[in-house]
Specification:
four-stranded parallel beta sheet; about 130 residues; 4 strands; alpha/beta
Length: about 130
């Protein structure tokens, strides 16, 4: 019998409670396995620190960072976002998902790009 292919190991770092609630529901409904780090991304400095930790751990194939852009357009937060983007560019397996107005499109990106076989097969060709 052929071996089942392994699913990629995915980590998701988010900023807020809404994202963690939605992503936990997504895990259940779509039967996707990923590790969620909701509190570690409360601010961009902590998000960068969590990325560094996950890179050292080397347990994940992909790391996604969900960032709400509504508070990152000016001032210090804009500068911190620029620094995070520069940091992430050095790693081909880390993706920054900027959400404005909603982050849910980022989770659809994850499903359709990296886990196309896990979503409901009846909906694949739905238009």
């Amino acid at each position: 019998m052929p071996e089942r292919p392994l699913s990629p190991a995915i980590a998701v770092i988010s900023e807020g409670d809404t994202e963690s609630w939605y992503l936990n529901q997504l895990k259940t409904c779509e039967r996707i396995d990923f590790k969620l780090f909701p509190k570690e991304g409360r601010n961009l400095k902590d998000m960068k620190k969590q990325n560094t930790s996950l890179i050292k751990d080397n347990s994940y194939d992909y790391i996604f960072c969900l960032v709400d852009m509504d508070t990152k357009q000016t001032g210090v937060e804009k500068q911190k976002l620029s620094e995070l983007k520069t940091y992430i560019q050095a790693y081909p397996n880390i993706f920054l998902l900027e959400s404005q107005p909603c982050f849910e499109s980022g989770s659809i990106f994850i499903i359709r790009t990296f886990l196309p076989d896990t979503s409901n097969p009846g909906m694949v060709n739905y238009r």
